[in-house]
Amino acid sequence: MNGQAERLVDRRPALDRGRLLDDLVPPPRFAGARFDTYVPDPAEPSQAAARSRLEAFAASTGATGARGGRLARLLGRRTDDATPRGVYLDGGFGVGKTHLLAATWHAAAGRRHYGTFVEYTNLAGALGFRGAVDALAGADLVCVDEFELDDPGDTVLMARLMRELADSGTRLAATSNTLPDALGAGRFAAEDFLREIQALGRLFEVATVDGEDYRHRGAPQAPGPADEAELDALAARPGAVVDDFPALCDHLADVHPSRYGAMLDGVAAVGWRDVRPVPDQNVALRLVVLADRLYDRSLPLVAGGRPLTDLFTTEMLRGGYRKKYLRALSRLTALAREASPAER
Prior knowledge:
By secondary structure, this protein is α/β, with parallel strands linked by helices. The chain has helices spanning 17-22, 45-60, 65-74, 97-107, 117-127, 129-136, 152-167, 190-196, 198-201, 228-235, 245-252, 260-263, 281-296, 314-318, 322-338; strands at residues 86-91, 112-116, 141-147, 171-176, 204-209, 240-244, 269-275, 301-305. The protein has 15 helices and eight strands. Keywords: ATP-binding, Cell cycle, Cell division, Nucleotide-binding.
């Protein structure tokens, strides 16, 4: 970075197979996530229970793992044991599921991969299904954050990928992207997940994690839109990128979502001018992926124009992708709150 105004719209990173695989680790925000740094809410006993369950699961992973599973099959023995091949965390966003999943990855032995549902589907899109299976084959543990049922094609692809990995002896840990409302309409329930991945259902133990969104528990009001002077000051800071929001939305259509993380290499803070409601679902879904990558990297966000809460229309927030949009709003609001006074 040279201290001059930089823009994400000028970045078009190219990724190779090695970078895609190297990125399958917990993101910087969760690089230090450990079981002992997860603080359960005393009012929600399911949180402490989920931590204990995953600690035991991680301790059992890597002892025999994928290599042991293949050997057992060669010897004609069953590969199932008293410990389930997979653990699935079911709960709303903001209850610490990603922290627990990252802690599981850090605590487990052997070869591990960690990524979001979208990152694995992007891997399959870049390498082809068989290429993705071959790239992940032999892992002791594969962690999948935010397993989704929104797109039938992607869900079937991921179910097949996970079945093949489980059959090879790989252990699996996954989280859902459920809404936090009790068993109401639209909830992505554990039963739905288990039905969708039929062959994997018997391999998963479900651990429910209840609670409210920790990102906003006792937090101050979200900051209002920044003015032009604040955005100009941010643009002059080393490592900052400031974009016109409509142009950025157009640019995201020209960059594969698997490259959004690389597009943020070297970035220390992000600014958006002229924030406005996104025009359609395609733009909105790309913005969700970008929001996740910003949050992964703990990049403070300074946004001008309309409030961030206006990004998604009422129709979008009532539709089939509402859980994604609500998660994105939660994360973007947290990043806006994390912007330091110097950046504001």
